[in-house]
Design goal:
2 copies of one chain form a homodimer.
Chain A lengths: L11 H17 L6 H8 L3 H7 L3 H25 L4 H20 L3 H39 L8 H13 L8 H4 L2 H19 L3
Helix pairs in contact in A: 1-2, 1-4, 4-5, 4-6, 5-6, 5-9, 6-7
Chain lengths: 203, 203
């Protein structure tokens, strides 16, 4: 008998540690949160934290990984629907912005000191996020290319262009003031996505 | 007799201080540069620096202001040409990316610690940059709206959308690795601008 393994096994303990981290980020911010605090909040020993993560920086990065992982799962769901490729790509572009926005909104103030402390590591790491997202977009773009909905030749390159064209609305690029204006971010994401998709459309 | 004043008078001393700052940023980075270093490099007294700027942070921000000010002047030049509005907006979008890229390329490594140290102040300040750029874009967009080159109703709102859609390529959003690949940044800026402009075009 074979056991079917989940594709992305996340040990419950790691998730509990990350949940605790997000709560502490919301309450105290990144700089004032210690590994001790995280252990207490998660109800695990400090040793358990270090079994899962190299340190506070790694916990914070893993929490960003988890946010982006969930958003990417959401994109896969939209990609699998049978809506028109144009509508799927539109929805996916808005979802990648609002999914992140909503996930971090409760602790967006603490993103400030987190991004300040982690900037170089974060910038290097996020290429992986974009690669994973681009793969999902490329599938739908390829489908639209085949059905002649889109006048494109290289779906993966176009996927990366679409990501860069919406990256200006990622949490990393928003000021605390902009985090207060969800409706504006949503409207802007939608309008930019609309322009891009009009650009892709075969005429 | 009236004296014609330049529209944006910049005292020569301030410019010398900023030139010196850029050289020191390239050599030592932001964190390791002191106001004393800047004074020595610029050949002025420390007191002179403080006559022009509140401190090191203000000098650094003024140096970003100057880069963006020059880029915005460049956009005004393109906006005044008699090329087709579509071509002008395309050129302006690429120019706002490459103008910044080329200005800071020699000290892009030191942008890392500068952006880390200045992040909240920088994010708040850059809204002013975008407002000034948007005004220039809006003029050309309005012209294209009148001549029916663009199917748009609100040129200023569209101008801001175009900026956000290319902000993912600003120095602030690039990793050191990406700074090594100018041709790639240029090609991406051009492709994104092309998609956006196809989206604006009346069909």
């Amino acid at each position: 008998m074979t056991t079917v393994l989940p594709t992305r096994p996340v040990p419950a303990t790691a998730d509990r540690i990350l949940d605790a981290t997000e709560r502490l980020l919301a309450r105290f911010g990144y700089n004032k949160t210690t590994v001790d605090d995280i252990a207490t909040e998660a109800g695990v020993s400090k040793r358990t934290i270090y079994l899962h993560f190299a340190g506070k920086e790694e916990v914070a990065l893993a929490s960003i990984d988890r946010v982006v992982g969930r958003v990417t799962d959401q994109l896969r769901k939209i990609a699998r629907t049978d809506a028109h490729p144009t509508d799927r790509v539109l929805d996916m572009l808005v979802a990648r912005i609002l999914g992140r926005f909503d996930s971090v909104r409760s602790y967006h103030q603490s993103l400030e000191d987190m991004f300040r402390s982690l900037r170089p590591t974060y910038l290097a790491r996020r290429q992986r996020y974009f690669d994973a997202e681009a793969e999902v977009f490329a599938q739908v773009l390829e489908e639209g290319r085949r059905t002649r909905a889109f006048a494109i030749t290289d779906p993966l390159a176009v996927a990366h262009d679409l990501l860069v064209a919406t990256n200006g609305l990622l949490p990393y690029s928003l000021s605390p003031a902009e985090f207060g204006r969800r409706a504006e971010v949503a409207a802007r994401a939608s309008r930019i996505a609309g322009l891009l998709l009009d650009g892709l459309r075969r005429r």
